Amino acid sequence: MRLVVAILAAIGSATAVSAQPTVPAGYHLIEGALEPGRGPDGNSVFIEAPDGLILVDTGRHPAHRDRLLAYARARGRPIVAIVNTHWHLDHTTGNGELRAAYPRAELYASNAIEGALTGFLARSRASIEQALAAGRIPQANRAEVLRALDAMDHPDMLRPTRPVTRSGPLNIGGRRLRVNLAPYAATQADVWLSDPAARLVVAGDLVVAPVPFMDTACPEGWRRALDEIAATPFTILLPGHGAPMDRPRFLAWRRAYGNLLDCGASDRAKAECVAGWRRDAAQFIPAGREAMVDELAGYYIDSRLRSSPEERRLYCPPA
Ligand SMILES: [Zn+2]
Question: What is the C-alpha to C-alpha distance for residues 56 and 31, in angstroms, rounded to an integer?
C-alpha cells in the first residue's frame, strides 16, 4: 500500500512541476556545495561580457575556488569584474585568491561590509578564537575556521572598489546589467542583478534553498526585496544556493518565506512553523537535508523572527 502511495505521489509531482529551467547562453552557474557538518558554498555565476568574464560570488571552500579558476581558464577569458551579492563568507572568501589571479578585476558590492567588520564578523572572530583556545573546534572543521579568520584578516579583499550605493543600470565589463540594492534584507544591503534582455535574475541569498539563511537578516526588509524581484520581468532566477528557478518556483519560494514570517509573528508553536516551512518549501529541500533544515529553521525562528528588540536593532533599521 505504501508503495502505491509513493508511486502516485511521484506521478503527481512529475506532472505538477515543470521541467528544471536551463541557464541561457552567456551565463554559467557553478552550484555551491551544501554538506552537513560544514559551512556551505554560495552559488557562483559567470556572465560573458565584451571585455571578459563577470563573476558573481566566490564561494567559501578551496574546492569551489578551484572550480571557478578552472572555468575561467577553460574559457580563456580574464575575469574583469567580481560582484558580491552580500558579504557572507560563503560568497566572498574566494575574493582574495580570485583577485590575486585577476588583479585588474573590479569588485562591485554594497558598503554593508563596513558595518559587518565591526559588528557580526568581529563577534564571530571573538567566538571563533574562544572556541579555538578552548579546543572546541573539531579537527574536521579547523581548516574552514582558519580560512574564515584569514578572510577577516584581509578586509580589503571584501571591500568594493566600485561600491554599489543605489539601484540602476550599470555597465560592467562592457555589458549592461541592472544592479539592484536591497536595504535591510539578508544583510544591511544586498545586491541582486537583473538582465532584461536575457529575462534573468541573479538573486544572491534573497532566494535560497533549502532554508533562508537569516543570520544577519531583517526579515521584513527581505520580504520587501522579494516583492521587488516579483515585480521584475524574468523567466529564470539563479538563487544564492540551490538550483535555477522558473517564475512559478520563485513564487512558491516567496510564498513559503512569507508563511514562515507570518508563523514566526504568531503565537503558534515553533515546531508548527518549522513543519510549515518543510511543507511549503518541500521542492527546494534535497533528500537527506531535512534534519539540517529543521535545525536551522528553528534557530532562525528563535533568533530572528522572535528576537528581542535589542537583537532586532542589530539588523533592522530604527523603527
Ligand atoms: Zn549564502
Answer: 12
